[in-house]
């Protein structure tokens, strides 16, 4: 009901959506848009994996070449890898597939709207809408987007309003990112998320070696399977450490580096090197950065800078 009478508020405008291509990000965004009433009318899919993904996530969507996808929609989502985006835009601009007024949004974190200039020149409305989220290709992708932030960049306030509305509609939080700082924005996200995965994988590998051959409650402790004992030991510790870091910054650092315990750090480097010199090298590099944040003693810095 409206405040002024008995008639219901009009439904927000529904858009016909096209997606290039049917990767993890594109199909997740398509599914999220369909959940709120938009219609994904077409998508492009080249590989067998992309075709299967489109069939599962967007079962009512027609699979077409990219130019045909662009011709059928009011909102075109370009969800291709960063290094393929410019060529795709140039190719689409060379066709007559995109009508003036078409919303064209890419999902690249590293790029703003400048990369869409060839399409902007023929009347498209350029948007950069990057979900600050990792995508696995599984069901949780769509759910996670409803609590994620999206880095948005547009050419003007109208574009920002459109991008913000789309993000809010699927449950995300829009965050403005200026065109000139998109590379730095992307670097920060990649450093935090990608390197966190590497760090955890190395920690799991070392802990599996440490626990190998032991038994817990009559059960083999390490069997090499994902989500084993090593993962269960680390999960609550890592979750707490991440929460503390986001809440308290550098003051959340604990452990031998924060305490300035040079002997413990030296022992860690020795035993990790026996397991895998590359894991030891990663530990050394991260410990050095941690030591710099905490103002560590010269003795500890000397240990960490050795052979770095």
From TrEMBL:
<dbReference type="InterPro" id="IPR018931">
    <property type="entry name" value="DUF2520"/>
</dbReference>
<feature type="domain" description="DUF2520">
    <location>
        <begin position="149"/>
        <end position="289"/>
    </location>
</feature>
<dbReference type="InterPro" id="IPR037108">
    <property type="entry name" value="TM1727-like_C_sf"/>
</dbReference>
<dbReference type="Pfam" id="PF10727">
    <property type="entry name" value="Rossmann-like"/>
</dbReference>
<dbReference type="InterPro" id="IPR019665">
    <property type="entry name" value="OxRdtase/DH_put_Rossmann_dom"/>
</dbReference>
<dbReference type="Pfam" id="PF10728">
    <property type="entry name" value="DUF2520"/>
</dbReference>
<dbReference type="InterPro" id="IPR036291">
    <property type="entry name" value="NAD(P)-bd_dom_sf"/>
</dbReference>
<protein>
    <submittedName>
        <fullName>DUF2520 domain-containing protein</fullName>
    </submittedName>
</protein>
<feature type="domain" description="Putative oxidoreductase/dehydrogenase Rossmann-like">
    <location>
        <begin position="11"/>
        <end position="131"/>
    </location>
</feature>
<dbReference type="InterPro" id="IPR008927">
    <property type="entry name" value="6-PGluconate_DH-like_C_sf"/>
</dbReference>
């Amino acid at each position: 009901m409206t405040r002024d009478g008995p008639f219901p508020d009009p439904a927000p405008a529904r858009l016909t959506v096209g997606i290039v291509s049917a990767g993890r990000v594109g199909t997740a965004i398509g599914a999220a848009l369909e959940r709120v009433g938009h219609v994904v009318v077409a998508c492009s899919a080249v590989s067998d994996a992309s075709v299967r993904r489109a069939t599962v996530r967007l079962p009512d969507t027609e699979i077409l070449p990219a130019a045909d996808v662009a011709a059928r929609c009011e909102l075109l989502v370009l969800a291709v890898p960063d290094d393929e985006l410019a060529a795709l835009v140039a190719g689409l601009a060379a066709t007559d597939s995109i009508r003036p007024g078409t919303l064209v949004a890419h999902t690249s974190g590293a790029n703003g709207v400048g990369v869409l200039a060839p399409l902007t020149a023929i009347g498209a409305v350029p948007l950069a809408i990057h979900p600050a989220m990792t995508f696995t290709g599984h069901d949780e992708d769509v759910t996670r987007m409803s609590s994620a932030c999206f880095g948005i960049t547009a050419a003007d306030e109208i574009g920002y309003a459109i991008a913000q509305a789309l993000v809010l509609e699927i449950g995300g939080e829009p965050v403005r990112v200026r065109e000139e700082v998109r590379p730095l924005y992307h670097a920060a996200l990649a450093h935090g998320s990608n390197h966190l995965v590497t760090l955890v994988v190395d920690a799991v590998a070392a802990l599996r070696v440490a626990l190998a051959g032991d038994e817990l409650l009559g059960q083999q402790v390490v069997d090499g399977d994902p989500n084993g004992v090593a993962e269960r030991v680390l999960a609550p510790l890592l979750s707490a450490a991440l929460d503390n870091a986001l809440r308290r910054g550098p003051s959340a650092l604990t452990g031998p580096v924060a305490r300035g315990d040079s002997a413990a750090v030296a022992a860690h480097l020795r035993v990790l090197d026996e397991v895998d010199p590359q894991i030891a090298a990663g530990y050394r590099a991260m410990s050095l950065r941690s030591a710099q944040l905490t103002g560590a003693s010269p003795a500890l810095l000397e240990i960490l800078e050795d052979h770095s």
